[in-house]
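Researcher: We're teaching a course module on how sequence relates to structure. For the next exercise, students receive a sequence and then see the predicted structure as C-alpha cells, so they can try to spot secondary structure elements on their own. Here is the exercise chain.
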Amino acid sequence: MGPRAGRGEKGGTGVLVIGVGNRYGGDDRAGLAAADRLGEAAGAPVALLDNIAGGTDLIDVWADADTVILIDAARSGGAAGTIHRLEVRADDPARQVVRVLGAGRTLGGSTHGLGVAEAVALARTLGRLPRRLVIVGIEGARFDAGEALSPAVEQALDEAVRLGLEEIARGGEGRCV
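Model: And here is the predicted structure for the students to work with:
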C-alpha cells in the first residue's frame, strides 16, 4: 500500500507506518498487527511488509516519507510484551537497532537478505534515511510457525499503538539526518 498522507516540508509524504514481520511466524507478526491497528487509529498510510525478501525493499518503501514509524517484533532477550523505542539518527551505530530487534535476524527469514539494522545502516550510507525514523520493537516469546500471538505480545499491541499515536502527534519534531 502506498503512502496517502499530505506532502511534507521536504517533498515527502508526511508520516508512514511500516509493519515488518511474518504473518505465519507466531510473535513475528506483532509488527504487522500493531502497524495495521496504528494506521487505522491514526488515519495514516501503512505499508505491511510480510516476509519480504530483504532490507532494500524497506528503503524503497520509506523513500518518500518524512517520518517513518517502523514496528517489528524484537528479540533482545527481554520479557515478552516489552515495548522498545528507538529513534534512529544519522550518527547512531547500527548496533543500537540490533540491540532492540535482535542480532542475526534478517527480513523474510533469509540468511542472504538484509535485516532492519542492516537496511538502516545502508540507508544511512546512501543518504536515504527518512528525516525521522522511529523503531518500535515488541519483544516476542515464540517465533515458530503459526498465526497466534503469545498472550503477552497480544496485550502489548495496545501499548505499541498508543506509543505510535504519540509519535505521529510529534511527527515534525526531531530529525534523523
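Model: If you want an answer key for the exercise: The two ends are 26 Å apart (CA to CA). The longest strand covers residues 67-74.
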